[in-house]
Amino acid sequence: MSGDFHIQRVVTSGVLGAGRPEYPPEGVPIENNVFVVGDASSALIIDAAHDAETVARAVGERDPLGILLTHGHEDHVNAAIALADRLDTHLYLHPADLFLWEETHGTERLPDFELADGAVFSVGGMELVTIHTPGHTPGSVSVYAGGIATLFSGDTLFEGGPGATRWDYSDFPQIIESINSRLLTLPAVTTVLPGHGSATTIGAEAPQYKAWIERGW
After folding, report:
1. Which of 47, 50, 136, 215 falls 20 to 30 Å from 157 in CA-CA distance?
2. Model pTM score
3. Is residue 1 part of a domain?
4. Is the per-residue pLDDT at 9 higher than 60?
């Protein structure tokens, strides 16, 4: 593993749901975490939220190996096409979330490749493995860098519990099962970097599992 591998967290700001009936007309302000990972020569980008230019600046002159989208929600993909064009790189999304992609971008331009369970990406001497973690959305994934015990959890796992499951395509029992069987089995020291907010660890979240089930969210 290269000692040059590092993670850069880029916080981008935007508006979620403007013009959609389930949100206020002006939408809801929101901040997202975008992660640029790699070494001095190449990088992978995890999510593409709000501000393509800011993320592109974080990549800099490095070779962009791809943009991995943790799920299809608007605030994680709304800058995806602009960022892919700006960096001349590929977009990856789990196919079960194409319907959400199409809500934001339509059908004329689709992601380049399916982000399948078990897909492995190599950058800066590090392997990142895709873990399908449905529940928040059908195609939600997490990305695990075992060499540094770090999990990019998208909106599946946060400090304090699972991601939201309020939509008709979401499933609370399913996200609980995803977290229990696929994430809480990772080493307790694993750092969890979610799509919004602060980092946590598997060890900090695992003891709360039964409490999440009891509260129902």
Report:
1. 50
2. 0.96
3. no
4. yes
